[in-house]
Amino acid sequence: MTETRTAAVTGATGFLGSRLCDRLLEDGWDVRGLSRPTSDRGDLEGVDWHVGDLFDEGTLRELVDGADAVFHLAGIGLWSAGPETVWNVNRDGTERVLEACRETDAGRIVFTSTSGTRRPQGDDDFADETDVAEPIGAYQASKAEAEDLVDRYAETDGEAVTVHPTSIFGPGDEEFTAQLLAMGVEPTMPAHLPGGLSIVGISDVVDGLLAAYERGTSGEHYILGGENLTYNCAVSRIGNAVDGSPARIRVPATAIRAAGPVAEVVDAVADRRMFPFDRQMADLATQRLFYTSRKANEELGYEYRPLEAHLPEAMDWYRAEIR
Ligand SMILES: NC(=O)c1ccc[n+]([C@@H]2O[C@H](COP(=O)([O-])OP(=O)(O)OC[C@H]3O[C@@H](n4cnc5c(N)ncnc54)[C@H](OP(=O)(O)O)[C@@H]3O)[C@@H](O)[C@H]2O)c1
After folding, report:
1. Which among 16, 47, 139, 223 is the best mutation to test ligand 1's pocket, defined by most ligand atoms within 8 Å of the CB?
2. Is the entire prediction scored with pTM above 0.90?
């Protein structure tokens, strides 16, 4: 008989974390999850909840002590918080998790950063793990500093691997996924964005997190991406697959660059709210932010599936919860 393994998960109540917990439970792990008193735990059953936040030392120590794996996913974006909170949670919160692991008997850490700390350089079509970019905004900057802390931990204290998911698509995400689906299926959403991005299904990211734990090399970074698609292509494919009416007008890149926040331009064109980005981030929305997951494929056996494979469950959720 194999011994049951224990995973400690921060961000367990979030979009990605709850899906990871489901999968760990299915695979027979004992799962400890960090939950704030105010967190919505949804219908996750079987998780051993540790109530507190990233700054509650005692709770964190109990969470990670004796765990075979520590999946650190808790993080916050500029969607939902100001820059100060973003720094606090993403950088300082990561430091607290590392401290708790140092002071206890914790196993390998898998830290979830973002592909946003990398960007294609020069004329390159795709970015890989070596294409470290000058961070834009507090989210990328705080994640970049957290990555440095994790790398240092891997050099001197214990095992740690960093993964960089691209834009995650799946049920439960009221931001990116809901907006992309709206652009693909809603007749009232006539506009889509210029530029392009790497869209990865949530189940593929969960596979990648587990593979990073099992097979990643400590101190290394792995991009977990999906298909590289222009918005135009992504919304057409969604529209075709679900019989929707894909947005036909592309918001002009020049208008986005001139106006800054994409929200303002799209409000005017489509009477809908869209990405609350600042000026630099708006500029990013006009670029093709494409990524290669070759390293994760070769070293972890990571594979991703096409957008259509992830659509049915995302659409079921969208129809039930959003529209
Ligand atoms: N979604 C994407 O496309 C994407 C792409 C690349 C990387 N990532 C990264 O993946 C991770 C998970 O993202 P997600 O989309 O699942 O985000 P999410 O749904 O917003 O979940 C964030 C999680 O972090 C927790 N959290 C926030 N502040 C905390 C604090 N002070 N103490 C303890 N927990 C706290 C939240 O708890 P509550 O439930 O209490 O709010 C929630 O469980 C993040 O680190 C994110 O940066 C996401």
Report:
1. 16
2. yes
